Amino acid sequence: MALPASRRPLPGSGGPLAKCAPTQASAALPNGSAPAEPKAPAGPGHRSYQAAVPQIPDLTEPELLRAVVMGSPSALAVVGLDHKVLLWNPAAERLFGWDATEVVGQELPIVDGAAREESGRLLIGAFQGHDLVEIEVRRRHRNGHPLDVSLSTIALHHTSGKVVAVLGAFQDITARKAAEAELARQARLDDLTGLVNRQGLLAELQLIQPAGDRQIAVIAIDLDHFKQVNDAFGYPAGDELLGAVAQRLLSSVRPADVVARLEGAAFAVLMVGVDPSSLETVVARLLSGLTASYEVGGREVDISVTGGVAVQYQKEVPAEVVRRAGVALHYAKQVSRGSFQVLDEALDRAFQDRVELSTGLRGAAQRGELRLHYQPIVTATTGVTVGVEALVRWQHPERGLLSPDKFIQLAEETGSISAIGRWVLHQSCTILREWSDSDPAAAHLSMSVNLSVAQLQDRDLVTDVRAALEHSGLAPGRLHLEVTESVLISDPASASRALGELRDLGVTLAIDDFGTGNSSLTALQRFPFQVLKIDRSFVNGIGTRADDTTIVAATLALAHGLGLKVVAEGVETQAQADLLAKNGCEELQGFFFARPAPASAIHPLLGRSLRPEVDQLQPTEQLSA
Questions:
Q1: Distance from chain centroid for Cα 454
Q2: What gap in Å lies between CA 240 and CA 50, rounded to an integer?
Q3: 402 domain-assigned
Q4: Is 619 a member of any domain?
Q5: How far does Cα 88 stand from its chain's mean position?
Q6: Does the global pTM surpass 0.85?
Q7: Are 556 and 623 spatial neighbours (Cβ–Cβ below 8 Å)?
Q8: How confident is the model at residue 137 (pLDDT cuts 50, 70, 90)?
Q9: Domain count of the chain?
């Protein structure tokens, strides 16, 4: 009758394994003499696995060891110095399908060709005294299918301290590995469209590299104004449209290409083996095909798309080419939605420059890097300064003093403009009050400050203006807040609310760059302005270009008819100043009188006439409307 597994003789008993010393109690030498004192193998970090075996009634020590090994739920194998199996327990038989009688005395059959080198390194490491190694490996079942197993190896020492065998313990982790692989696969897919997502796109890019003149291109695609679809028809309709776009993209590319949904209404196409000479033609055709009508929820929906294209450089990491495609898309949206942009090195450098400036701009006011320069505004007849306009500069720690055209638009796009505007308000009100307290010539000066779209939309604007006035003690009417027509057009509702509240506060409101927008007359009618500033583009041509002369004359007549004071910007010559003064323009501003400068340079100019030869005006020089 066959013995139960726990009572079977240990396969491979006798020989080197019998002389191993897993415990002190079982460490007797074969001739029955007392064991010598164990010697630890040389080398730092060695740990001995010899421990006392508990005494259990009715079981001898060998029987206990046999019961543990043969009844263990873990697959156990012992391999000798010659790499041949000395022990193979029943759990190993069940896991790998090989019977102990087939395995003992042979090299491990579960190691196929691809894993032999790895297995050899593990055994050699164990033989060299690396007592415990834990690793996840792939091994082979008898029927040929692979098994993922967790393997722990332990070096077995003779009582002399010499390693004589290696014990390997296997746990089947095939199911866990399969589950992990499925989760990883799902993590690379977009739930809505079934396309790969950004992570999946990067994984695909990692597998391929450009070769020769056949290149790899990534096309970033965005559905223009997609939010309007969600707002008009609901989110289910938006999801249906995204699914339809995904299917159209899949049907428009080659089998080797990869289509991904990155996020929201943003898609990407990875094109493999692109001919550079035909790239733009291919992209144009692809995007054109996406703009045909879609049927969504029983409705016909038309969309436009914008694209950005980046060609992968040799050895470029996947994330970088996807990033550059996004940069190209950003530029395409700025230039013209419904088109596409191929990114070149110059555009990429410009974008990186913007990112660096944007990063530095955050907190520039708190770090004390902002500066205010002031440009005088003078009376047209005497040239005496009656006000100044505050113009912000950025003292960049590496690039030096930057003018507003280098960073103001960027500040508006990134949301830094509100903090900058708040700082300008406080500083300009404070400096004017300081001048007024120390110099009688400044007692009635006004301070002009520009407002941006973001500031007008900020519900804290009136609070910020009130705080600046109260902190400085400046009379509200001496603060002139300038708003351009483009600001008014972008959000007229917010502008109307904010300007009404500011007017109630007592500040003076000016419309700046008048004549350059699309609703000049509407702005004068709708908003409570008291000052009109003629744009420099018209002032530059008076007296020399008939159209500009006529426009300036008509603007003066219109403003005076509405009871507005007029300031002409960009005055650069004596002739311009003379003509404007003789035709009733109250105040002038421009390089002819003074360039913007720090407060220390402007203060000495207060109370002086900045207009030479005032008495030489000819009364016959008139503008005609």
A1: 22
A2: 67
A3: yes
A4: no
A5: 55
A6: no
A7: yes
A8: confident
A9: 3
